[in-house]
From TrEMBL:
Cross-referenced InterPro entries: AB_hydrolase_fold, BAAT_C, FrsA_esterase
PANTHER family (alphabetical): DIENELACTONE HYDROLASE DOMAIN-CONTAINING PROTEIN-RELATED
Gene3D superfamilies according to UniProt: alpha/beta hydrolase
Pfam families reported in the protein's UniProt record: BAAT_C (PF08840)
Protein's recorded name: BAAT/Acyl-CoA thioester hydrolase C-terminal domain-containing protein
Residue ranges occupied by any BAAT/Acyl-CoA thioester hydrolase C-terminal domain in the UniProt entry: 9-61
C-alpha cells in the first residue's frame, strides 16, 4: 500500500536529520492513517509513541461488501479519490486494507506507548 511506503520514507527522512531528537519520533494518524501508523510502528522500533484517532480495528466495512466498486464510487463521491485512474485494481486496493488491519499488528507495538482516541458517536468506525 502506498501509504505505508510513504510513512516509512517519512520516518527514514526524519531519522536522517541531525536536528531531530530520535528518542521522540512519534506517529499520529487519523482513520486509515491511524491504521497505517499502527502497522508501521509494529515493524519499526524507531517509533517512540503512537497516537491513533478514529482507527478501525479492521476494514471489513470496506472489504466485505457485495459490490467492491461501490466502495471506490463512494470514495470518489466524498473526494477521497480524485485520480480517475485510481485504483488500478479494485481488488488489490481492498486487499491492502485487509493487509494493514490494525487488529493484526497492534500487539506488535508493545512496549511502545500507544494512545487510542475514538469518539463514541463515530458513524463510520464502530468503537
Amino acid at each position: 500500500m502506498g501509504w505505508t511506503r510513504d510513512l516509512k520514507a517519512a520516518l527514514d527522512y526524519l531519522w536522517a536529520l541531525p536536528e531531530v531528537d530520535k528518542s521522540h519520533l512519534s506517529l499520529l494518524g487519523f482513520s486509515s492513517g491511524a491504521a497505517v501508523s499502527v502497522y508501521v510502528a509494529s515493524l519499526d522500533k524507531r517509533v517512540s509513541s503512537v497516537i491513533t484517532c478514529a482507527c478501525p480495528a479492521e476494514f471489513t466495512f470496506l472489504t466485505e461488501v457485495d459490490e467492491p466498486q461501490s466502495v471506490v464510487d463512494h470514495f470518489r463521491n466524498i473526494g477521497a479519490i480524485r485520480d480517475k485512474d485510481f485504483p488500478y485494481s479494485v481488488q488489490e486496493w481492498l486487499d491492502g486494507f485487509r493487509f494493514i488491519s490494525p487488529i493484526k499488528y497492534v500487539a506488535g507495538i508493545s512496549p511502545t506507548p500507544l494512545l487510542l482516541v475514538h469518539g463514541s458517536r463515530d458513524e463510520v468506525v464502530d468503537v
